[in-house]
Fold this protein.
Amino acid sequence: MRVSLYMAMSANGIIARENYDEDFLSHRNWEVFCKLAENIGCFIIGRKTYEVVKKWKDYNFDSVKAKKIVVSKNMNFELDSGYTPAKSPKDAISKASAMGFKKVLLTGGSGINSAFMKDGLVDEILLNIEPVVLGKGIRLFAEDNFDSRLKLINTRKLPKDIIQLHYKVKKSK
Ligand SMILES: NC(=O)c1ccc[n+]([C@@H]2O[C@H](COP(=O)([O-])OP(=O)(O)OC[C@H]3O[C@@H](n4cnc5c(N)ncnc54)[C@H](OP(=O)(O)O)[C@@H]3O)[C@@H](O)[C@H]2O)c1
C-alpha cells in the first residue's frame, strides 16, 4: 500500500490554530484535497479531525466522493454512515487494502500524521505552504519518536502564493 500524506500549513508548519480553526488557510487547499481524495478514492483521518470538520459549515468530508477511514483507539466511537473505523494506522491500511485500494491519502491531523510516520508507513508527502506565519497552533507532526529523510520530487507555485512541495520519504532499510 502506498500512503501519500497531504497537508496544508503555514510557512512555519502550523496546520490549525489551538482552537482547531483553519481560517488562515485558503479555499484552494480544500480543492486540492478533494481532487486528490477523489482521484485516489480513499482517505484516512484521525478521530479529532473527523470531529472538528464535522462541525464546519462551509466544508464537509461527507460530500467528498471517496472512502473515508477514521482512526481511533476507541472502537466504540460512533461514526456517521459512510465512515469506516480503524484502531491503528496499520489497521487503517488493512481496511483500505480490503476495499481494493493500492494507494491511500492520509490527511491529518498532527497526531495521526506522526503515528503513521513513527510506523514508517508514509511513502510520499505533499505540502501546500501558505504565505502566513503563526506564533501558536497545531503542528504538522505532533511530537513523537521518528526521524525520516526526504527526497524533493517537485515544487509548484499555485494560485494565492501557495507553494506545493512534493517529497518522497526515504526508507531506511
Ligand atoms: N491543515 C490541514 O491540512 C489539516 C488537515 C487535517 C486536520 N487538520 C487539523 O488538525 C487538527 C487535529 O489534529 P490532532 O493532532 O489534534 O488530531 P488528529 O490527528 O486528527 O486525531 C488524533 C486522534 O487520532 C487517533 N490516533 C492517533 N494515533 C493513533 C494510533 N497510533 N492508533 C489509534 N488511534 C490513533 C486518536 O484518537 P482517540 O483519541 O479516539 O484514540 C487521537 O486522539 C484539527 O484542528 C484539524 O482541523 C488540518
